[in-house]
Amino acid sequence: MITSSLNAAKKPFFDKRSAFNLSLLIFLLFVYAVSFYLTPSPDGVGTHKNLFLPPCLFYETTGIPCPFCGATTSFACLAKGRIVEGFKANPFAFLLFFSGFYFLLYSGYCFILSKPFDYMYFFNMAVHFKWLVAACIIISWIIKVYCYLN
After folding, report:
1. pTM
2. How far apart are CA 29 and CA 41, in angstroms?
3. What does the domain layout of the chain look like in residue ranges?
4. CA of 21: how far to CAs of 15, 27, 30, 97, in Å?
5. What is the mean pLDDT of each run of 10 residues along the chain (150 residues)?
6. Strand ranges in the chain using DSSP code E only, listed in sequence order
7. Roughly what angle, to the nearest 10 degrees, separates helices 71-79 and 91-113?
8. Taken in order 51, 52, 54, 55, is the CA torsion positive or negative?
9. Model confidence pLDDT, tens digit, residues 103-146
């Protein structure tokens, strides 16, 4: 009886689950901090060049933004509270920004309370909704091209 209570008291504070929650929390905080630091491109594309990333080959070749062009610009606008500009820059990144903010809060909650982050639930949900996600990316691209050309 005493031995089992002593073993329960020796449970490590920082286990694999806590490490995952903390690493996700730090990663997302880093993404949002960098987004806040960046100056969004007025063209709606090209903000990623401030991070020393190469230009988009699709955009350079065709002159039309790819489905992910403007994602960094969208994050930079949204981090500064410019919601309409962030949506116009890339509607799909708009969804990613706010779902990432949810994961930031959820991983912080799980870390503080030492709860498991049920990442398999979110992974399985993404697998089941893969066609919906693909449709969102395509619709987002259509909106992006329409906003870019007008």
Report:
1. 0.80
2. 22
3. 17-149
4. 10, 10, 14, 19
5. 54 69 90 94 88 92 91 94 91 90 87 78 77 89 84
6. none
7. 60
8. positive
9. 888 888 888 888 877 777 777 777 778 888 889 899 999 988 88
